[in-house]
Amino acid sequence: MLVIAGGWYLWQRSKNQEKATAANERLEKDKRLYEHIKTGMREYHWRERDQPLWHAKHGERVFETAHLIAFHLDHFVESRVGFYFKDLDEYGMYSFFAGNDDDFIESYYRTDRDFQKEGVLLAGDD
User: Fold this and answer.
1) Using H for helix, E for strand and C for coil, what is the string for 76-122?
2) Which DSSP helix (H) or strand (E) runs through 40?
3) CA–CA gap between residue 33 and residue 93 (Å, rounded)
4) Please, what is the end-to-end C-alpha distance for the chain in angstroms?
5) Cβ(91)–Cβ(104) under 8 Å?
6) What's the confidence (pLDDT) of residue 34?
7) pTM for the predicted model, two decimal places
8) CA 82 – CA 62 distance, rounded (Å)
9) Tens digits of per-residue pLDDT, 82-103?
């Protein structure tokens, strides 16, 4: 009986270790993508000084660098920018919602190449 209980305990512990490892890997990937999106938005705002990038059509490429491609995304309430990060081979999305007074919400997402999925990142400055 003791052998069975010990085996069960070790099995449960290995399952928990696998879950913890997967969660840590997801957090690290999300942190990397979050930092890339923040860098992409700095580049976006810098380029926006010279030309209004919001005039682009939905899904249209607004600029490209050696590291990323930025896309304009239409949304009925939010201002959105999509990114493809070449070094990560991943897509990310930034959204900005302005509310009443000085209230605003910034959101960072992992997305697909069509910018349809919105997987909230588990990383941020909060």
Assistant:
1) CCCEEEEEEECCCCEEEEEEEEECCCCCEEEEEEEECCCCCCCEECC
2) helix 2-48
3) 10
4) 48
5) no
6) 97
7) 0.80
8) 10
9) 999 999 999 999 999 987 777 8
